Amino acid sequence: MADDIKPRLRVPTTAKKGELVEVKTLITHPMETGLRKDADGKLVPRLIVNALAVTFNGKPVLNAKLEPAVAANPYLSFFVKVEESGTLKFTWTDDNKQSWTAESKIEVS
């Protein structure tokens, strides 16, 4: 399953100093809640992306805790005020402690 998990980002590449920029992210993940049963009537084990950490130039921007009620392929949107050029780094972690990262640069003028 790990090969199917793909983080996607939509981040502006440029911004003005002090501007609020909208950041959008989606990760393809089945998000098994642990409540669904398979064809044999057995519970499918829980396996969700339970955390998203976002930093800008190494400083925390967002720490989100996700719960089983979040849909498969979770999508999040938030705003960041940028004062300098830098890199947004996204790290998603699931119940099995697997993690996926993605980065996007913003050039501030």
Description:
This protein has 109 residues and is mainly beta. It has a single domain, classed as Immunoglobulins (Immunoglobulin-like, Sandwich). It is built from no helices and eight strands. The chain has strands at residues 7-10, 14-15, 19-27, 49-56, 59-65, 75-82, 86-94, 99-108. Strands 2-8-7-4-5 form a five-stranded mixed β-sheet, with no helix packed on it. The chain has a three-stranded antiparallel β-sheet with strand order 1-3-6, with no helix packed on it. The chain is elongated. It starts with 6 loop residues before the first strand and ends with a strand. The model has no long low-confidence stretch (mean pLDDT 94).
Task: Please summarize the sheet with the most strands.
Answer: 5 strands, mixed
Radius of gyration in whole Å, from Cα? 16 Å
How many domain regions? 1
Give the fraction of residues assigned to helices. under 10%
CATH topological fold name: Immunoglobulin-like
Number of helices: 0
- In CATH, the homologous superfamily goes by the name Immunoglobulins
Strand-helix topology:
Layout (H helix, E strand, L loop, with lengths): L6 E4 L3 E2 L3 E9 L21 E8 L2 E7 L9 E8 L3 E9 L4 E10 L1
Parallel strand pairs: 2-8
Antiparallel strand pairs: 1-3, 3-6, 4-5, 4-7, 7-8
Task: Produce a short descriptive summary.
With 109 residues, the protein is mainly beta. The chain has strands at residues 7-10, 14-15, 19-27, 49-56, 59-65, 75-82, 86-94, 99-108.
